[in-house]
Structure formats: structure tokens, C-alpha cells
Amino acid sequence: MKKLSQIRTEIEAIDKDIVTLIGKRTDLAKDVLDAKKLEGKPINDEGQNRAVMERVANIATECGLDGGEVKNIFKVLIKMSIERQHELSGEGNLP
Predict the structure, then answer these.
(1) How far apart are CA 15 and CA 35, in angstroms?
(2) pLDDT (tens digit, 9 = 90+) per residue, 1-34?
(3) Cβ of 33: how many Cβ atoms within 10 Å?
(4) Which residue ranges form the domains of the chain, and what is each CATH number?
(5) Which residue blocks in the chain are alpha helix, DSSP H?
(6) In 10 A of CB 95, how many CB atoms?
(7) What is the pTM of this model?
């Protein structure tokens, strides 16, 4: 059996990986914004947002996770992406 400190060290490493992946996902906002401009799509694409939510809920279920809670996490990620796209387009108020 692992000691609590070992488990917490593993969790810290996973947390770092998660934050790194969030950063990578957010960094794609520039590419997404450029593609949306070319295709004449709005920054907030409700159809795409729904598709992401459905996809992550299905993945969560396959992994034995609560799809609703995973969707809550992705609501935040989508919000971050939309805010970043607004910022990059000069419409945002983020630093």
C-alpha cells in the first residue's frame, strides 16, 4: 500500500499535467480565431460548444466518470477559450 505522501506526489504531477494541457488548449485559441474569421463564424459557436459537451460526456461515461461533472469542467474551458479569442480579437478586457 502506498503512503499518503506518495499518492499526493502522484496527484501533484497529474495536476501539473492537467494545467499544462489547459495551457496548450488555451493557446489554440489564436488558431481557432483565425479559422473562424476565414470561415465567417462567430467567436461563440453554440453548435460547436454543444458538440464538445456531448463528446466529453460520452468520453467521461466510457471512463466511468460523472459526465455532468466533466461537462462542468469543460464549460470553464470553453469559457476560457472564448474569452481568449475575444482578447485576441481586441474585444476582450483580459490582461
Answers:
(1) 30
(2) 999 999 999 999 999 999 999 999 999 999 999 9
(3) 20
(4) 4-88 (1.20.59.10)
(5) 4-27, 29-39, 46-62, 67-88
(6) 4
(7) 0.88
